[in-house]
Design brief:
flat, mainly alpha, about 70 residues
């Protein structure tokens, strides 16, 4: 069995377990997990500090201590 097939089999098993357990988990916990997961994905895929040579420059932010 190749590494790819092993990975797919493990992934399908994890998805199957998740689908079986989901009806047993309270809705508030599901919503919290969903928010945390998609928040993490958004944070990882977010593009910051990219200027793309548009001719603009970023100003440094004001530290919270001086406010």
């Amino acid at each position: 069995m190749s590494k790819r097939r092993v990975g797919l089999a493990i992934g399908k098993a994890i998805i199957g377990i998740g689908r079986a357990v989901r009806p047993l988990v309270p809705g508030t916990i599901l919503k919290t997990l969903d928010d945390r997961f998609f928040g993490a994905v958004f944070q990882v895929t977010r593009v910051t500090n990219d200027n793309y040579n548009s001719g603009t420059t970023e100003k440094a932010g004001t530290p919270d201590e001086t406010r």
